[in-house]
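Please check what follows.
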Amino acid sequence: MDKLRDRYDIATDGVMFEPGEQFDVAAVGRAQTPWWNRTLCAVNDAVVRLGVLEGDFHWHKHDEEDEFFLVLEGRLDIELEDRTVSLGPNQAFTVPKGVMHLPHARGRVVVLMVERAGVVPTGD
């Protein structure tokens, strides 16, 4: 699993933008390469993360947190144990806590994720 996680450019230490600071989500996404994932901002007890994906992530789950995905660009398939959810631009889905899932980015995908602060993006 460590080798798999090494290919991801994921940071969870801090936020890019503080409350009251305006930012351009599309511009931040355009400037990144896959597998980049950062916390854009915090909203109360949740964080808003931006991910730039391409290809497959890995099977994982979050035991205590739901995970919300909003596709901004591209196509993201989220494979669950019993079905696959396909999302295009402006489509969203919430993976319930404790549910195994495998995100498949079909080409370059830019996605907003909302989850509880402190979540481990690569899963529990």
Notes: The CA atoms of residues 42 and 48 lie 6 Å apart. The helical segments are 2-6, 25-30. The chain has a mean pLDDT of 89. The two ends are 12 Å apart (CA to CA).
